[in-house]
Specification:
The structure holds two protein chains of two kinds. By secondary structure, chain A is an alpha/beta fold. Helices cover 42% and strands 12% of the residues of chain A. In chain A, helix 12 links the parallel strand 7 and strand 8. Chain B has two domains: 104 residues, Ubiquitin-like (UB roll) (Roll), CATH 3.10.20; 144 residues, Alpha-Beta Plaits.
Chain lengths: 598, 275
């Protein structure tokens, strides 16, 4: 590991910028290179980047401040981020592993240790939900954490052991495929889908995609064929294909498996789309948490170029030119929203755009752009190869095909389950070995919280649409703690653009914290309902419009988890006198009874 | 032009706001059409002539249902692809007027929502009206009066925000910033500069200055820039002119916030001592 960097010269900064720029001119890429090298992005570095790229200083600064994985002050040489997801988070096993690691390494969470060796913080779900508690150390995931592993990690950090010498099996990530249907069961050889596509030509391929009934797998369910058709018909100097691999919904990890083991199908689906809409450039927007997949994905792309499946005159077709660049995000859930993703690709904060116009007419750089989910592109590749009838034979009338679920939480066999659409919640619970289930969160925090009397509901666009997250909560779980966790997640991930979401998600978070700490009253519940309804109905984008779902769902279906925590009075002030003395206790190193009120 | 063609071009499309039929031209938003017809839709981040923004959400209106019903669980479908689906809440300033829209605007329920949003804007910042020199000229304050807001209702966030007094003639007090980005857009679109931007995210989003030091003094902001005058609250102020107009004779002592075309009055008012 390189020694700590005390003073950074402008030459050093410029060398890193020039080197990164030679690989990719995307702002996120250049900022990542600086973060890696200097462990933070200083004001001076911001100025240099701005001048190098010809951007306003304020734009670069605003991007650095927006994304969680960029820092204005130096992080430790070991930067450790523990997931705070309810499934792969640091409290998933019942113990607080964050406190444990901080204690062992004598670090305050969020602050870099004085010797610059280590910094520890929490981060939103890193998509390792079927692998137990998980963390990222300098971007590399370590899963199946427990107290003994935390102790060993602390020792390795303290002895400054390079990551390459840490136990290799710690970094092993499994696919955990438990149930396969259309996409995971059938083989897919690189190029087969594209050869079938060329035989059908553009109109035939588009017709096949449309007739298949394929709908967006991110959860919104827009017809893929329609989206491609609108984009194809839109006028523009260039058309773009974007694969949304910013899988940020807590409890979702199915794209990780598709990218790890089925990347050819994903890239082939993008190429089929490019053929249909007439695009020459595609982007895979990979969430920063999955950066460890990058070398492998680059290798798949290189292999496809060798096979003549990417590049110029693809498969010998004159004029069929297309290539794919991977752009890696930097820790922002909102970039899963397609227009925020496009803003991020353009080197800006991930703030959702006003719509209309939609990306199909005004997307990347204002040009017609298709943004589809990883799973959608994989399905499109299979449809190109096997045809729409093959696809339609599975699923329901309005939800053709299969859906890949990421099952996590309290069950015997968490992992990947691919089912024909129309499967019931109960079926999934039986298959994953979930017993004594209190509730299921379908579609992640932004989805729907289901109670046992509704376990006969079916997954599909007719009843319960889902992006793929399926979190099981057993009877032993503190459901209120989960709702609080989700509220903190949304407040942390709100982009801050519109008032209802920016202020509302924080008000909801504060209100829930008050209730969870035993200071809430009926008045606070009524306030939650009123604020939840406002945030849901009046917010700018899908984040705000779904942020209150866990609260509203649980108030309706699990009112007792709130009511049993209420203080027995009609009103309790937010101001907590004992809590306000906490700072004084810390300063005086006291925590005895006399240092507390009551 | 033939009579028939002429009739076609002058026969306007119409939308209906609170039962009143209002004409609109192609390309107009609901807000454009409403303001042109003298119908006030409350707004803070909107200013005719600047690119509509749609962030403050004061201008939320409901577009009536045409009987499209959705199962509750289909809400993601509704939220992500809501443009063709009616029975929805939209920002009037960014939503195109479409013939036949049935729009609710000045209703008790919507004004209650707007009052709550205004309270949210008050409590997330540090708005101490009695000690603010913008008092009486402040659109946020006027909005609060207009909507019958009597208190902040929610617990104050009391954020720590930076004050920038570096510029010789312009003061930047972020305590009062409501993130409407009027200054951002005015600087970019009218002044031909790029002095302001928003950085960070969520509740920590904040206004930054595009200069090497991050300070106003090192930016190319000038006293006569629209960006220096457009702030609807007291976040960007012209120094040494704050008390020339006494309380009682300030903009909203003499005008209602709901008057159409007030933007010119407000701009003239903050400029009058400079010009």
């Amino acid at each position: 590991m390189s020694p700590p960097i005390r003073t950074v010269t402008a030459e050093q900064v410029n060398a890193v910028i020039a080197d990164a720029y030679s690989q990719s001119n995307h702002l996120l890429h250049i900022l990542y290179a600086l973060q890696q090298r200097f462990l933070h992005i200083s004001h001076e570095a911001v100025r240099e980047v701005a001048s190098h790229l010809g951007l306003p200083i304020s734009q670069v600064e605003s991007v650095v401040e927006f994304y969680s994985f960029f820092y204005g002050t130096p992080r430790g040489r070991y930067n450790i981020l523990l997931s705070n997801c309810t499934s792969c988070g640091y409290q998933a096993g019942g113990e607080n592993l964050l406190h444990m690691l901080c204690h062992r390494l004598r670090v305050v969470a969020g602050k870099t240790r004085a010797d610059g060796l280590v910094s520890i913080d929490e981060t939103s779900c890193i998509g390792m939900c079927d692998h137990g508690a998980a963390l990222l150390v300098n971007g590399m995931p370590i899963t199946r954490l427990d107290a003994s592993k935390i102790a060993r990690i602390a020792d390795l950090v303290e002895t400054e052991t390079p990551l390459a010498n840490w136990p290799a099996e710690w970094f092993r990530i499994d696919d955990n495929i438990r149930n396969s249907s259309l996409l995971l069961k059938n083989d897919f050889a690189a190029g087969d889908g594209m050869r079938a596509m060329l035989a059908r030509n553009i109109d035939g391929t588009l017709a096949e995609i449309t007739q298949s009934g394929l709908r967006g797998r991110g959860g919104a369910g827009f017809s893929t064929g329609m989206k491609w058709k609108f984009c194809r018909e839109a006028q523009g100097a260039a058309h773009y294909v974007v694969c949304n691999a910013d899988e940020g919904e807590p409890g979702t990890f199915k794209d990780r498996i598709l990218l790890h083991s089925h990347a050819d199908a994903v890239f082939e689906g993008m190429t089929v789309c490019a053929f249909v809409i007439g695009a020459e450039q595609g982007f895979l927007y990979l969430r920063g948490e999955y950066r460890y997949l990058l070398p492998q994905l680059q290798a798949v792309l290189a292999h496809r170029r060798e096979l003549g499946l990417l590049g110029s005159s693809i498969l010998g077709q004159p004029g069929f030119n297309f290539d794919i660049e991977i752009v890696v995000g930097a820790g922002a859930y909102i970039c899963g929203e397609e227009s925020a993703l496009i803003e991020s690709l353009e080197g800006k904060r991930g703030v959702p755009r006003n719509r209309p116009p939609f990306p199909v007419t005004h997307g990347y750089l204002g040009q017609p752009t298709v943004v589809n989910n990883v799973e959608t592109f994989a399905a499109a590749a299979h449809i190109a190869l096997r045809g729409s009838t093959w696809f339609r034979a599975v699923g329901t009338e309005k939800s053709a095909g299969s859906k890949i679920l990421s099952v996590s939480g309290d069950c015997a066999a968490p992992g990947i389950y691919e089912y024909p659409f129309g499967v019931s919640i109960q079926q999934v619970l039986d298959d994953c070995g979930a017993k004594d289930v209190q509730a299921v969160q379908v579609g992640g925090p932004s989805g729907t919280l289901i109670n046992p009397v509704k376990f006969n509901r079916k997954l599909g666009f007719e009843d319960l649409p889902t992006g793929g997250s399926f979190m099981v909560f057993g009877q032993g779980r503190d459901l209120l703690a989960i709702i609080v966790n989700f509220a903190h997640f949304f407040a942390h991930e709100s982009c801050g653009f519109c008032t209802p979401c920016r202020v509302g998600t924080t008000l909801l978070k504060n209100g829930l914290d008050k209730i969870a700490s035993g200071h809430g009253t009926q008045y606070d519940l009524d306030e939650m309902k009123r604020m939840g309804a406002l945030v849901k109905r009046r917010s700018h984008c899908g984040l705000g419009q779904t942020a209150a779902n866990p609260i509203l769902d649980s108030l309706q279906r699990f009112p007792h988890v709130f009511e049993q925590r209420l203080a027995h009075s009609n009103f309790e002030p937010y101001f907590n006198l004992d809590g306000a003395l906490e700072e004084a206790r810390q300063v005086t190193h006291r925590d005895d009874a006399a240092a507390h009120l009551k | 032009m033939s009579t028939e063609a002429k009739q076609n071009t002058i026969t306007p499309n119409t939308i209906t706001i609170d039962g009143q039929e209002i004409p609109f031209k192609d390309g107009q938003t609901i807000m454009d059409a409403a303001l042109a017809a003298g119908v006030y839709i409350p707004h803070l981040c909107h200013r005719p002539g600047l690119t509509p923004h749609g962030s403050c959400k004061l201008c939320v209106v409901d577009i009536g249902s045409r009987g499209v019903s959705f199962h509750n669980s289909d809400r993601r479908v509704q939220t992500k692809f809501s443009v063709d689906i009616d029975g929805r809440s939209v920002s009037a300033c960014t939503t195109p007027a479409v013939a036949g829209q049935q729009i609710s605007n000045n209703t008790p329920a919507l004004n209650e929502v707007r009052k709550t949003i205004t309270q949210m804007l008050f409590i997330e910042g540090n708005h101490i009206c009695p000690s603010c020199e913008k008092s009486g000229d402040c659109t946020l304050q006027a909005m609060a009066y207009h909507l019958g807001m009597l208190d902040g209702h929610f617990p104050q966030f009391f954020p720590r925000r930076e004050v920038d007094a570096s510029h010789p003639t312009v003061m930047l007090d972020r305590d009062r910033c409501i993130l409407c980005e009027l200054c951002v857009r005015a600087s970019r679109e009218v002044d031909g500069k790029n002095v302001f931007a928003i950085a960070g995210r969520g509740i920590t989003a904040h206004l930054i200055v595009n200069s090497s030091s991050g300070k106003l003094v090192d930016s190319d902001l000038e006293t006569n820039d629209m960006a220096a005058h457009i702030c609807p609250v007291g976040a960007i102020l012209i120094k040494e002119h704050g008390y020339e107009v006494p309380i009682g004779r300030r903009t909203f002592d003499l005008h209602q916030v709901g008057e159409i075309g007030l933007e010119k009055v407000i701009l003239a008012k903050v400029r009058h001592t400079d010009e």
